[in-house]
Amino acid sequence: MSSEGGAKTGKAGVIVAPDDATVMDNLAHSVLDDVLYNIVHDLLIKVHRDEKMARGNTAAIKVEKLASDASESSAPDAKPDVRIETEAAIYDDGKVTLKGNPLKTTKEILCPRCHLPRLLHPTDGKGARKPDPSVIYCKKHPYIEKPGFDIYGQTWVAPGPGRGKKKKDIEQKKLDGDAANSPAAELTAKDRPPNVLSYPSATCSKCKRCILVTRLNNHMGSCIGNSGRNASRAAAQKISNGGSNGGSQNNDNTPPGSQKGTPLPTSRAASPRKRDGDEFDEDADESDPTNPKKKKLKPASLPKKVILKTKNATTKKEKVKGSSMLNVEQKIDDVVKNSTVQVAPKKSTPKGPSPAKKAKPSMVAKPPLPSLASKKGGKRDRDVESESSGTLSSPPQ
Amino acid sequence: MAAQPATPASPVNFKIKSPQVGKPLYGCEHLQRLFNQDQATTNTSISHFKQILRRILDVSPVLKQTAKPVEGPPNEVAVTLTPTYHCLQCPSIVTEEDRAKHGTKKAHRFYVDSRSGALYCQMCDDLVWDSTLEDLRLRKFGTGTFSSNRKRKHDELFASDPMKENAQYISTHTTMGSCKANGLRGIYNAGATCYQNVVLQSFLHNPVLRNYYLSDGHQSGNCPNTPHCLSCAMDDMFQDFYATENTNGYTAANILSGFWISEKKAFENLVTTKEQDAHEFFQFLAEELHERNGDGKKPESGSEHKCNCIIHQTFYGKLQTTTTCMHCQSDTNQVQSFLDLSLPLENLTQKKGKKAKAQSMTLQECLDEEYTKPDKCEYRCHNCQSNQQARRKTSIKRLPNVLSIQMKRFEFKQGRNERAAKIDTPVQFPLQLNMLPYTNRADTREAKENNNELERSCTYDLLSVIVHVGEIDTGHYTAYCRVGDNWFAFNDHKVEVAQISDVLSARAYLLFYIIRSLA
Predict the structure, then answer these.
(1) Mean local confidence (pLDDT), A182-210
(2) Which part of the chain is the USP domain (chain B) (predicted)?
């Protein structure tokens, strides 16, 4: 107790004054110790509240479920006139009361919305535990804490030349934290796990072409922006490329502004990793047949694409790629309609200044179609349209 | 249970909350027994609970922290820093050690923790969370009052017809999102657009804006505006974040094209493929959304612009500048609305540099410098009809719901080729910010006497932090946003869990604070 000057410590008993301490020293130590106690106390109360309320609600959900099962009435809102008792709660006349302490009687936590059990440990990274494969869990999972991966355990194909990254940015990233990028970079494309995503494409709202997301701003700058140097550059390029734009495989999609993104010749020599990145992409092409299932899915999403891309797509030879950007959860659930298809025209574009002339099909994936009914039905459709048109990649510059 | 006839002795009958689906009615069996005895017991228990909460929050903390011993001389009181327990059934305050003794002596079984207001049940030997009492506790701790019908700061925000408050109406008109859709997604960098991404993330995790868009505040389906309405793009983005199960990054193509198409002259230099200032983009987005949702008038900077649009209700506050003539002592007041507070670090770093080597300062110091200290200026006094020396003091007249603060982390080096440089001085900012000292009510007697309540109404919680790393002309933006009690770091398409220590040690460029209680 801090009021008694003689005590050597406070309630927590962690910060203890030395034996030869003066009265003021004792007081200071016991005050500090009490403050520490309070911090821990507040934290514990918060965790206790969340946990106990979740368990109590779980007990209520379970007993209500039993009650509605027991009653013949099919109306979902009707309060069944039965009395059901579990070891954690009692249901009687629409009222649920607890039996005993829910922290002791109830072991799992059910989601109050979908009534499925919550996964209580992350599936990967810090504090990870293997989930029980026989249980269908609520889709809200604990967030994953793992260096190089995001909260859903996803990671991305390391940016490289031809994927919308300038040399400067890559070097900057290297300085910032190489470790963060390495997990993706060290994997070859063949055994690239499904949680490694590549950059999607989006439609330019003006010219309706598909642009790799990392170049979208540049593209819009020249397509919509019409300002300054970019516009004149774009104009110049349009003139010089004008003939080939119509049906040519090679240059049709080149964003006019992307000249800026062309790596300087030295960039290849300076960073050998980027080459590796390219080679992965090559591998990804070959890994095609290993993924027949996803290939089969392609027709499902094709029609929409074709409608949108009547100008270009029909005239273009396409190569279907089997790489996907399914994330872990989708894989587990095997949600077929969420699967994605990647399409990239394969071609080799002669590169002016680059010493290594190389075909670099860019990895482009379409974000999965939103699978659930949105609040606004009509609007969703429009969204899907604009996003799904991202199936076609823009060829690398 | 609660529906028993009222006894004449108790004019006010407290009601137990009506049963809710998926929630137990009482905190524990013992509390159930207490509330089911008779209405009089329920009344005394609940009114006593409210009394204890008032004692905990509204009066001097010494009172609630002073416990009387159960045994021994009654004048031997103990004042403690650690929690005391307030008996629900009698006015006693006991220490944790004496709780059991008091229970055996008086057969009182329920106690309220003096730090949190949580209820302890001796028979469970555990804290219990009863829905009725929790409601009261949260309301008292959150708003400082038990009543729910108080005049709110922004009535328009909560204007509702009673029909729509009906639970039945809500449930039939709501589409629940998936449990997986939680608004936590990255946004792809479309080529030097991280300055947009961070601002978008801070908007996405702003509860006021989120509620506006998710409750069909601006429906992109029937919007009369041009096809490239930025507010529609925002609506689509909110839908995509909070209604789809997608965990991949979001491609903000519509926002980007809306941004490119927008014809805001003031922000013309923003519209380029180069790296830009996040603060300018924030201003751009706010003004654009105001025009799409509000009265359509351009927000003139500096004027007292009145508008009820969502942006004004969220971000705009009012500043008052009082100029006092040194000659005749007459005051002139000028009121301006503001979107954000800009805090110059330049002067303060120089001042600090001279004084000591302590190269760190606090947000409160910066605010002090701007909004509590008067400065001198010269102006034309109407009273004296001549130019006079004057004292000018700026303070906040009306606080916004979401307070945005910009740290001016750049300075201009004087010289022939003027160059801007970045100030990298760390500025410590709190999770909880009391803005009372910077309002024009800070010096009033009300503030000094009724400090508790007024201070609570001026308390802000940190909502998001935007950080810039790198040089003045190039670099990268990242954002930290709070979702509930968890913090997340947003780095373009990547979302990671963040520790509070990471957030607080960040070199913030923009800070967003949200008012704790809207009451």
Answers:
(1) 66
(2) 185-516
User: In chain A, how many domains are there?
Assistant: 2
| Cβ neighbours of B466 (radius 10 Å) | 28
Answer yes or no: is A259 within a domain: yes
| Residue A161 · residue A263 · CB < 8 Å | yes
B190 chain-A contacts, CB cut-off 8 A: 202, 213-217, 220
Residues A99 and A203 in one domain: no
Same domain, A170 and A309: yes
Out of A48, A143, A370, name the one closest to residue B127 (CB).
A48
Give the residue-averaged pLDDT of A210-231. Answer: 72
| pLDDT digit string, tens, across residues A12-48 | 888 888 888 888 999 999 999 999 999 999 999 999 9
Same domain, A91 and A167: no
Phi-psi region of A104 (alpha: psi -120 to 50; beta: other; left: phi over 0): alpha
Residue A375 placed within a domain: yes
Are A69 and A178 found together in one domain?
no
Question: A376-385 pLDDT, tens per residue?
Answer: 333 334 443 3
Exposure of B13 in the CB half-sphere (CA atoms within 13 A) = 14
H-helix or E-strand containing A367? none
Q: Confirm whether A380 is domain-assigned.
A: yes
What pTM did the predictor assign?
0.73
Closest residue to A220, CB basis, from B113, B247, B256: B256
**ipTM value:** 0.81
Same domain, A264 and A163: yes
Residue A179 lies in a domain: yes
B500 touching chain A per CB within 8 A = no
Closest residue, chain B, to A384 (C-alpha):
B240
Q: What is the pLDDT of residue A234?
A: 52
Q: How far is B249 from chain A (nearest CA, A)?
A: 9
CA distance B158 to A5: 53
* DSSP letter assigned to residue A221: I
Residue type, position A272, single letter: P
B29-143 adopts what CATH topology? Herpes Virus-1 (3.30.40)
Tell me the HSE value of A30 on the side-chain side, using a 13 A CA sphere: 21
User: CA A244, A247, A249, A254 torsion: positive or negative?
Assistant: positive
**How does strand B386-398 pair with strand B375-381?**
antiparallel
Q: Does residue B102 contact residue B128 with C-beta atoms inside 8 Å?
A: no
Write the CA distances from B309 to B231, B280, B305, B387, B456, integer angstroms. Answer: 12, 20, 11, 40, 26
Could you tell me if A246 and A370 lie in one domain?
yes
pLDDT digits (tens, 9 = 90+) for B289-314: 888 876 555 555 545 566 778 888 89
In 3D space, the residue among B286, B288, B283 whose CA is nearest the CA of residue B263 turns out to be: B288
Q: Give the N- to C-terminal CA distance of chain B in Å, as an integer.
A: 32
